[in-house]
Design goal:
This protein is of the alpha+beta class and about 425 residues long. It contains 19 helices and eleven strands. The strands form three sheets. The protein has a six-stranded mixed β-sheet.
Length: about 425
C-alpha cells in the first residue's frame, strides 16, 4: 500500500470513533491501517468510496482471498479471526452467498417481520415494567418508580429486547441466552487476549451446537429447525460448519447491532431534547430518529472484512490484492462530502431533505437481512420508552459513559438513566 503518511493504528480498546474518523477523512476516503498484532490492512471510510468499494466486482468476502491468513501468518488467537473464518453469509460470495441467504431470508420477509410486531410491543411493555420497578427499588422503594432511582437502561431494556426476539426466532432456549450475549461480546472484542479469544469461540460453537442438537430432537417453527431440515433434505445444501456459522452470525448481528442502535438513539435524543420535542410535536417521527442515529452514530463502526481480488486504488490509496479491508460505517455516516457541512450534527429531519442514504446497514448483495426487524424493534422501543417516561435523562455526562472495548461495535457498555417525573 502507498500513502504519504504512516498507517493509522486501530485502537483495540475502541472508544469513541468520531474524532479519529474526522482526522482520517480529512486525508482521504481510504487509509492504510494496522490491526491488532500489527496486521497491515486498510479502511474505506468516505461515503461514496465505501458504497463503490462494497459493490465492486473485484472485492470479495471469502477469506481465501486474505493473503496473510492463507499463508499462515494469522494466529488462532487473533481477535478478529472469527470475522474472517466463520462460515456463513458474511464470508461467502457468489452462488454460496445466494444459497445461504435464500435459506435465511425466509425468516425475514416483510410479512413475517410484521407478524412479530404485537409480540415485540408486548415484550417492550413487559421490559419497561421491569425498568420502572428497578428504578423504584433503586430509589428506596418509594413512589411509583419515576423518581431519582438510577437504572442501567442498556442492561434492563436495550439488551433483552433484541436478544429475546432473535433467540425466539432461532429457537434458542432461555438457559443459553445470557451466556450467548457474554460470548458475543468477547467474539467482537478487539482487545481480548489470544487465549480468551480462542476459548470464547470454542464455547460459542459448543453452545450453539447444543442448541442445534436440541432443535434437531425437538424441531419447531424456528429458523434453526428450518435450517436443519433444509440441510437434511438437501444433502449438501448446508453443512455442519455452515449451520453453526450461520447461527453465530445471526446471534451476534441479531442482537448486538440493535442493542447498540437503541442505546445510541436514547443517548442522542436525551442529548438533543429539541429533536425529541420535534417528534412529540409531529414535526418528525420515531423512524426519523432511528435513521438519523444509524447515520450519526452507527451501531457498527468498522466492520471486518472485505478483500480486493486485484490491486485497487481508492482515492489515491493503493490497496493490494488480499488485504483485509474494514468498512468504516461510522465515518461514512459523518462524511461532509455526502451529508453536508453539518454532517456531525444530529438532525432527525435530515432524511426528508436529502437523497443521500446512510450505509450503516450495508449495501448491495450483503445488505443486512435483519434491517427491517432492527428498525421495527428500535422504533417500538423509542416510542414506548419516551411515551412512558417523557422526562427520562442520562444520569451521567456523556464522557463518563464506559465505551465498548472494540472498534467494531460502536456504543457504550452501560446507560445509567433516571426516569424522571
Amino acid at each position: 500500500m502507498t500513502a504519504s503518511y504512516a498507517p493509522h493504528r486501530m485502537d483495540p480498546s475502541g472508544g469513541c470513533p468520531h474524532a479519529a474518523n474526522a482526522a482520517l477523512l480529512a486525508k482521504g476516503a481510504a487509509a492504510e491501517v494496522l490491526l491488532p498484532g500489527d496486521v497491515p490492512a486498510a479502511v474505506v471510510l468516505g461515503h461514496e468510496a465505501l458504497k463503490e468499494f462494497i459493490g465492486h466486482p473485484d472485492v470479495a468476502k471469502n477469506a481465501r482471498h486474505f493473503t496473510a491468513l492463507r499463508e499462515g501468518r494469522i494466529p488462532d488467537g487473533w481477535p478478529l479471526r472469527t470475522f474472517a473464518t466463520v462460515q456463513g453469509m458474511v464470508t461467502s460470495d457468489g452462488d454460496d452467498h445466494r444459497r445461504l441467504r435464500a435459506l435465511v431470508s425466509k425468516a425475514f420477509t416483510a410479512r413475517r417481520v410484521e407478524a412479530l410486531r404485537p409480540g415485540i410491543e408486548r415484550l417492550t411493555d413487559e421490559l419497561l415494567d421491569g425498568v420502572e420497578a428497578a428504578a423504584a427499588e433503586a430509589a428506596g422503594g418509594a413512589g411509583d418508580g419515576t423518581g431519582d432511582g438510577v437504572v442501567d437502561l442498556r442492561a434492563l431494556f436495550a439488551l433483552p429486547l433484541p436478544m429475546r426476539v432473535i433467540s425466539e426466532l432461532l429457537g434458542v432456549d432461555e438457559e443459553f441466552r445470557d451466556r450467548l450475549h457474554v460470548l458475543s461480546n468477547q467474539v467482537v472484542a478487539t482487545d481480548i487476549a489470544p487465549e480468551d479469544a480462542v476459548a470464547a469461540n470454542r464455547e460459542m460453537v459448543a453452545v450453539l451446537t447444543a442448541v442445534a442438537a436440541s432443535r434437531k430432537d425437538r424441531p419447531g417453527e424456528d429458523l434453526t429447525s428450518a435450517l436443519i431440515a433444509a440441510r437434511e433434505e438437501g444433502g449438501d445444501r448446508l453443512g455442519e460448519a455452515e449451520l453453526i456459522g450461520t447461527m453465530i452470525v445471526m446471534i451476534i448481528a441479531g442482537h448486538e447491532t440493535t442493542l447498540n442502535l437503541i442505546t445510541n438513539a436514547v443517548r442522542a435524543l436525551c442529548a438533543h431534547r429539541d429533536q425529541l420535542e420535534l417528534i412529540r410535536a409531529g414535526g418528525a417521527d420515531w423512524a426519523d430518529a432511528v435513521e438519523e442515529t444509524l447515520r450519526w452514530d452507527s451501531p457498527v463502526s468498522f466492520f471486518p472484512f472485505r478483500y480486493p481480488t486485484r490491486d485497487l486504488t481508492v482515492d489515491g490509496t493503493l490497496i493490494p490484492a488480499g488485504t483485509p479491508v474494514l468498512a468504516g460505517f461510522s465515518a461514512a455516516g459523518r462524511d461532509p462530502a455526502a451529508h453536508g457541512p453539518d454532517a456531525d450534527r444530529f438532525d432527525i429531519t435530515r432524511r426528508t431533505r436529502s437523497t443521500t442514504r446512510h450505509l450503516s446497514l450495508g449495501h448491495g448483495a450483503h445488505y443486512c437481512l435483519g434491517a427491517p426487524l432492527a428498525r421495527m424493534e428500535t422504533t417500538i422501543a423509542l416510542r414506548r420508552l419516551f411515551g412512558r417516561f417523557p422526562d427520562l435523562r442520562v444520569a451521567v455526562p456523556e464522557e463518563e459513559l464506559p465505551r465498548h472495548r472494540s472498534f467494531v461495535g460502536n456504543s457504550v457498555r452501560e446507560l445509567p438513566v433516571v426516569l424522571g417525573g
